[in-house]
Amino acid sequence: MTRKLPGKAERYFTTGISMITSHGPNGSNVMAAEWVMQISYNPILIAIFIHKGSQTLKNIEKTKEFGVNVASEKQTSQVSVAGGYSGSEIDKLQIKNLFNTVKSKKIRAPSISGCTINAECILVKKEKTGDHVMLVGKAIHIQHDESQSPLIYHRNRYFQIGHAIEPQREEIPVDRETFEFFTNLAQKRFVLKCIGVTVKSKNKILVVKQPNSFMQTIPLCIPPSGKNHTRYLEKFLKKMKLDFELCQEPIMKRFVLKYEKNSQRINMIQYNGKTKSDKEHLWKPVNSDPILSIL
Ligand SMILES: Cc1cc2nc3c(=O)[nH]c(=O)nc-3n(C[C@H](O)[C@H](O)[C@H](O)COP(=O)(O)O)c2cc1C
Asked: Ligand 1, closest atom to CA 20?
């Protein structure tokens, strides 16, 4: 079957490429597939989308197993052959000096060396989706090779992975006590997710004293995941007897606290607030505190 040239829009998706291995009545086979995706962690499930005319589909329907071998950037020749010819036309795996296969641990289809990931799957679901068939495999054995870099596919061309994009987080050097206060709040989580309210008056910001600590911070709380943030913050403020009106649109502040070689990321959803009462509050000059100065 010949692949139709994509129209304009679908040409802009970006994927990796896998080599799907299978075993059938005529021996083992390999095809190239860009439509491959992990869809569950536990169990590890991988969905592949295969056209009906392929030898691979026939093999998998018979044996109920397949290998997903995620191509590395050095494997463009193998991918081109796996995707350019059908196993019904030629025994691709027998072409000299092309595929380096090894015996799989749990399935009959071979694994391909030099890939970034090799997953051995058993078929758990098959469903027709448009002009392709979705096959979901449960990985019963999986391994990866950190030394290999994945091949990228975009607009019918192969690419290498580029530079990592530096996260746009402001870095704030803090003292040990401040660092410890926030890392304790984070309870060993990589990113501390919190919501806070800033109430400003000229260059001062309203703060509260944190219990059992010297720290003064804006009123902030850590909502359990899944809870509505605004309502949780409102309840928290009520409990603290802080009579604020919250402005409707929160903003996201992402920063990273640095102490010596240690860092703690913070994602803060920040509301602006207005005090409703003229109750005495604790105000702190914004520029006297590195964290408050960025809020
Ligand atoms: C880069 C690339 C990506 C491809 N991705 C898919 C895909 O996701 N699904 C699919 O059915 N065919 C895909 N193909 C086409 C098949 O690999 C091709 O039809 C192959 O000849 C089928 O081999 P078989 O008949 O031996 O199974 C792709 C081809 C290339 C070159």
From this structure: 27
